[in-house]
C-alpha cells in the first residue's frame, strides 16, 4: 500500500480524534471541530496534507453521497405527501425570495442575467450535511425550527434536479473540451440535448432502483450472508454515484433519488444500518475537506472583497430566512434558530458552480471566489449558532418565558423534568394528576408556550446548561427526571448534574439495554427503559386473551419486570465479552422461566390459567377481567 496514502489517512483520523472531542467538550459541536481541524491541516495553512482544496473535497464529497442516500431512504412517499404543505410552502418561499435577492445583487455587480440567475440559485442552497448534523447533536431536530429547516433542505435537494436541467439552457455557448481532459456524456451536447439527457438519466435511476435494485437485494437476502448484503448496499450507492458522475451530474443527487425509490422496499432498515457507519466516517472527512479547501491565499490577496461576499451572502440569507420564519408564524427564538442554521451556502453549490464553469456561465476567477465563499460560509455557521445560543437567545428569546415562570419557581417544585416529549409528558401528567408539581425544561419554544397556558412551570432552554438548571430550581429540587430523546444529551446532562447538583436523585430514560449499560457505568441506578413496560403490558393483555385471569397475568408481569431488572445488572459486567454475554443471557432466561414457574406453583391464584383454547372459547368477555 502507498505510504503517502497511509500518511494522509493517519493525519485525517488524528485530526478527528484531536479536534472533535475538544470541540464537543467546549460545547461547539463536532461539525466545527472537523472544520477547524481541516483548516489547520489543509494545504493553505500547515500543509500537512497535499493537493488542492477541490481535490480534497472531491474525495470527501462521498460522505455527502452516503448521507443523502440515507435521507432518501427515510423519505417515504406517504411521509412526503403529509409534509407537502410545509415543504412546498417553506421551501419554495425561502428559495424563491433568496434567488431573487441574489439575482438583483449580481445584476448590480455587472453579471449577465443568465450568470446572475444561476449564481443566485446556487447560493440559495443550504448545507444539508451541516444543518442536520448540528440540529441532531443539539436535540433540536424535532422542534418547529428543526422541522421547518428539514422541509426547506428537502425542497432544496429536490430542486437540484430542475436546476441542473435548466443550467444548460442558460449557457451562452458550449466550448470544446480541452485535449486530454476527462469527458462526460453531457459535454459537447447542445443545451436542449443536455436537458433531455439529464431528465432521462434521472428517470433511469428511478426505474433502476425500482425494477433492478429491489430484485437484486431480494436475491442477495436469500443467501443469508450479512457481509454480502453490506457489500450490495455499498455497490448500489457507488454504482449510482458513478453513473451520475459519468453523465456529468451530481453523484449525491443520484444516490438521493435512489434512496427515495428504495424507501418503500422491505430492505430499507437493513440498508440504513449497513450504510450508517460508513456515512459517519466519510461525512467527517467531508467537513475536514471543507475546512482544508478554504483558499487562504485568495483571502490574503483580496481580503475585503472575499469578506464582503461572505458577509453579504450570509446577510441576504438571514434576512430572507427571518422573513420566512415570520410568514410561517414561528416565535422569535424558533425563527432565529431556523435562520442561523440555514444561513450558509450548501455543499450542492460546489457541484452547481463547477457545472456553471463547465458551461462557461462563470469565468474561472469568479468560480474560485464562489467556491471560497461557499466553504467559508459553511465554516462560519456553527460559530453563528453558538453566538445565537449563548448571547442572543438567553437575553431576548427566553426573557418572557422566565419572567412569567418566576412566581411558579418560588413554589419550589420537588421534581424537574428535562425533555417533555411523548415520554416526559406522560410522566409529567401522571405526577400532576397525583398532586406533584414539576418544573419542565424543553428546547421547543412553541411547546413551552402551550405548556405555560396549561399551567405547567416551564423554562425554555437546554437542560445541559447549568445556568438553566439553576434557574429552574435544581439546587432546591429533590428529583431530576432526564427524559430527553437523545441518549448522548441525556448522558451529558447526567454527568453535569452529578458534578454540580449531587443531592438530586436522578431518574433517567434509556432507549434500551445498551443505553442502560452506559448509564449504569456512570453510577445511575434509577434507569427506565422506554419500551420495556409497554412490551410487558402487551404481553399481559395477550395472556388475558388466552384465558389467564387479569390478576394472575398482572402479577406475572410484575414478577417478570423484577427478574429482568435483576438479570440486566448481572449481564452488565459481561457485555463486552460476546461469548460470556451470550452464555450468561441463556442462564438468565432459564432462571427467569424457573422463577416464574415457581411463583405459579407457590401461589395457586397465579396458576389459574388454561392453554386449552376449546375450554375458553365460550368464556364470557367479563370473565377475562375477573379477580
SSE arrangement:
Blueprint: H1 3-25, H2 30-41, H3 53-60, H4 62-74, H5 77-82, H6 84-108, H7 113-123, H8 128-137, H9 144-170, H10 191-222, H11 226-247, H12 251-262, H13 268-293, H14 296-301, H15 303-327, H16 332-341, H17 348-358, H18 364-397, H19 399-409, E1 415-418, H20 422-433, E2 438-442, H21 445-453, E3 457-460, H22 466-471, E4 479-482, H23 487-500, E5 505-510, H24 513-521, E6 527-529, H25 532-545, H26 550-571, H27 578-602, H28 613-616
Parallel strand pairs: 1-2, 1-4, 2-3, 4-5, 5-6
Structure classification: mainly alpha
The overall average pLDDT, rounded, is 75
The helix content, as a percent range, equals over 70%
CATH class descriptor of the largest domain? Mainly Alpha
The biggest beta sheet is recorded as: 6 strands, parallel
What is the number of domains? 3
- Beta-strand residue fraction: under 5%
Describe the structure.
This protein has 627 residues and is mainly alpha-helical. It folds into three domains: 3-174 and 182-396, Up-down Bundle (Na+/H+ antiporter like fold), CATH 1.20.1530; 399-527, NAD(P)-binding Rossmann-like Domain (Rossmann fold); 533-625, no CATH class. 70% of the residues lie in helices and 4% in strands. It is built from 28 helices and six strands. The chain has helices spanning 3-25, 30-41, 53-60, 62-74, 77-82, 84-108, 113-123, 128-137, 144-170, 191-222, 226-247, 251-262, 268-293, 296-301, 303-327, 332-341, 348-358, 364-397, 399-409, 422-433, 445-453, 466-471, 487-500, 513-521, 532-545, 550-571, 578-602, 613-616; strands spanning 415-418, 438-442, 457-460, 479-482, 505-510, 527-529. Strands 3-2-1-4-5-6 form a six-stranded parallel sheet, with helices on both faces. Helix 6 crosses helix 9 (144-170), helix 8 (128-137) runs antiparallel to helix 9 (144-170) and helix 16 packs antiparallel against helix 18 (364-397). The longest helix is centred in the middle third of the chain and has 34 residues, at 364-397. The protein is globular and about 80 Å long.
